[in-house]
Every structure is written in structure tokens, then in C-alpha cells.
Amino acid sequence: MNLLDDDIVQVFQQLLREAFPRVRGWQAPAAIAVHKLDASNRISGPSIQIHNNLRSHWLASSRTRAGVYVADSLLAAEPPSPTIVRQLIQIYGDGKPHSHLDVTFLPCQTQRGSSQCGDFSIFNAMLFATCIEDDRALLESRFASSHFDQASMRSHLLDCVRAGKLLNPIVLESAPTTSISRPTTYRIHCDSERVAPLNLQ
To answer: Does the domain spanning 6-194 belong to CATH 3.30.730?
Structure first.
């Protein structure tokens, strides 16, 4: 299965922007990855962004009513990579000296295989858009309990492109794949890019 590229991801970000006009963000992942944004690109309101870690991996983030969250279909038990940390600071940091940013990695569906992280990043961005105003408990529950039919993802995305709009995805599988057991929150120190886990449970 072919990997998605920046151009295709931007097509879906545009479809999401049109479907959810009150949600901001949706900046070009390639520009964020190489840090070509300035302070004017920081988003303070509800927003969503798809990221690339420069190692062929895609994930989605959002500033929601409840805070800043990341959904990563290949999330490992380790802090986010330096590339993603810099992207999160660039988008969600306030630019003030000695500030920090708390980012929660959500429990979410874990992909099978290694070639569909781009598909999952788009589906997770869609899910963020539908629950961006939820409180923390409801948002975390939505991600922990939502499972997409991975085998149908790519054909569904192609159908969206042909239709020129987002279509309702196939949401539940009969046997959901493994999910991350609980959210993990990291405190990112914006000046030093140092990352430390927080225990908010």
C-alpha cells in the first residue's frame, strides 16, 4: 500500500476545513516540519493539525476545549520525538520566555502494520473535529472507544476525494485493535524543548 504524502494530506486538511469552518489550524505539514512558520502561525483557539515526524510517520494534534492533545496510531511508551516537540511548540506554544506546554497523548486505536499512519492521522483529525468542544473525560472516552475499519480506510479516503467532501467513515470493527490503555501527559518546556511526563491521573 502506497504511503500518503504532504500533498494528499493537505487535500484532506482542506476538506476538513470546509466541513468544520469554525476549527482553525490545518497548516501545511511540510512547512511545520522544517520550521518555516513564525509567531503569526500560532493558534490560540480550537484547532487541528496533521504532523509528519520527517521519518515517514503521520499523527494528528488538536487544541481542544480541554487542552492540547495528540492522537498517534503508532504511539510507543516513550516521550514524543524532538521533531514533534518542536512542531507542537511552534503551533501551540505562547512564545513567552520560560513557558511550558502540557500535551496529552490520547488512548486511541493502534494501527496494524506500518503503512497506514497517514490514513489514521486523517481519521483522527476527523474525530478531533467532532469532539473538539468536549470536556476532558468525554474526549478521552471518545478516542478510547472509537475504532475504524482499517481495511476500508484507504478506499474511503479515495471516495472522499472523488466526492470532493468528507463522507461518514465506517466507525466500528467487530474486533477492535489494541488501544493505548490510558492517556499520558507530557510537559514541554518551550525554551529548552525538554519533555517530562506528568501524572494527572
So the answer is: no
